Amino acid sequence: MGIPIQNKTVLVTGANRGIGRAIVEEAIHRGAAKVYAAVRKLESANSLVEEFGERVVPIRVDLEDPASITTAAQEATDVDVVINNAGVLKTASAVDEHAIESLQYEFEVNVLGLVRIAQAFAPVLKANGGGALAQLNSVASIKSFADVATYSASKAASYSLTQGLRDSLRAQGTLVVSVHPGPIQTDMADHAGFTEIAEPPALVATAVFDAIADGEFHVWPDSMAKQFGGAYQSFAENVVNAEMNENPV
């Protein structure tokens, strides 16, 4: 069952720029009552407050700082929808001399950060009737790219965890959504060398809230993502979305 965003309270990590900012803007345009702009530095959300007034509430969240996440969950007790957008990317192949360092950093933020968000906010969502948790994964979750192999590995892990969260949180009525963008016009895409083919962040924001409203698990928001999603559809339907009662190991 889907969840309309109108009159809901939404929390968005990495809200100050790129996809996160677009998600905040889309939530407001769809009638969200309040949006917590979860950022590492509160002042980075000032322009959102200036634009939308009291409907945007900056709150400190650093995915590398478990205490900040716990504190945020204690403060934002009225949250209905959590969108974990924040993430990091290092340009490193598996044989790069800095591969292990990059992998450790990306797993700390992209993987452990997701677990910390889920553990902190799942009880809040349950108390408020279930709500939704959306995780920004990537097309790199299902296809590794050599030049960003460590990032791809971290996103594959976060996608796997997102699937687990979907099943774990179903009983409490929480909808879990896995979002898989291709190259989007962000600093991260520029750093990875995808500037020329990147598409607007608004595509992701629109697709996220459409999926939440429709109760969908997978989201493929842009042109490249849709190609991946089309090729992946059979596996997703027959394996990822299938009910499997037997432990495979």
UniProtKB/TrEMBL annotation:
PROSITE patterns (alphabetical): ADH_SHORT (PS00061)
Entries under PANTHER family matching the protein: NADPH-DEPENDENT 1-ACYLDIHYDROXYACETONE PHOSPHATE REDUCTASE
Family, per entry: Belongs to the short-chain dehydrogenases/reductases (SDR) family.
Protein name (record): SDR family oxidoreductase
Residue ranges of every copy of the Ketoreductase domain listed in the record: 8-187
Residue ranges the record marks as coiled coil: none
Top-level taxon: Bacteria
Species in which this protein is naturally found: Aporhodopirellula aestuarii
Gene3D superfamilies for the chain: NAD(P)-binding Rossmann-like Domain
InterPro entries the record matches: KR_dom (IPR057326), NAD(P)-bd_dom_sf (IPR036291), Sc_DH/Rdtase_CS (IPR020904), SDR_fam (IPR002347)
Record keywords, A-Z: Oxidoreductase
UniProt lineage: Bacteria, Pseudomonadati, Planctomycetota, Planctomycetia, Pirellulales
